[in-house]
Write a structure and sequence with these properties.
The chain is of the alpha/beta class. The chain has one domain (4-268): Rossmann fold (3-Layer(aba) Sandwich). It has nine helices and eight strands. The radius of gyration is 20 Å and the shape is globular.
Length: 272
Amino acid sequence: MANRVIVGFRDEELNTSKSTISKCNLFSLKFCLAKIFILQEILQMKTAIISGAGGALGSGIKNKFLSKGYFVNGLYHHSPDRTKEPLKENEKDFEVDLLDENAVESLVKEIAAEQKEIDVLVCTAGGFAMNTIEKATAADLQKQIDLNFKTAYHLVRPVYLQMKKQGRGRIFLTGSRQGLVPSRGTHALAYTISKSMLFTLSEVLNADAKDDVVISMVVPSMIDTPANRRDMPDADFNKWASPDRIAEVIAFYSSDEAKIIREPVIKVYNQS
């Protein structure tokens, strides 16, 4: 699938050269100068990439980073309908197949070239399936590895290399309680194995990382989403972790206040 991009400003507008002013007459000069000022501010923002930005967790994280003043690149499998929620000035949508390694690498290079640096990557795309050893086929296992590991790896690899080049950055991988403690995942064998691979990836990259590049594992237990509420209507939702609260934690670990933290495994269980 070819990358498609929808953006609040046209890409050519990000070139804040004298040619922008030359197109303006005296009556619109103030407007043009204000627009140039806004565009310059955008170029000075920290940059975040959020995969799975259309999901319950991804959208909560996207909105949190937007509110923190980041320029947010939201990655979607299918572009969202923007008729009800127009793009913000510090936001871009990208439609991309995360299983297409070449397309993802090209997209990361495009973002890095346009926005100069990538400060934060949060990977939330993935999927879940129930299957025990009695029913889990090799095809079931491969499907979960594709959904939960390969979609992350295809994105992490080029972003990590960019962050190594720039000397800093934060990457967040969405794990699971079963991936952290595999003995809890006997009912979801393929899912558990695919999530455990992300923990291994984070350990390897943190061992390789230099300067100020940190890979974090975010480990939810039960996330308070509409789908989970429908599936478990009798549960105590107050014990679950909401996407907004998880987003707050990730935003903190991305901040200067958390700069000294290394190799974090962030357990966002609440009381579940």
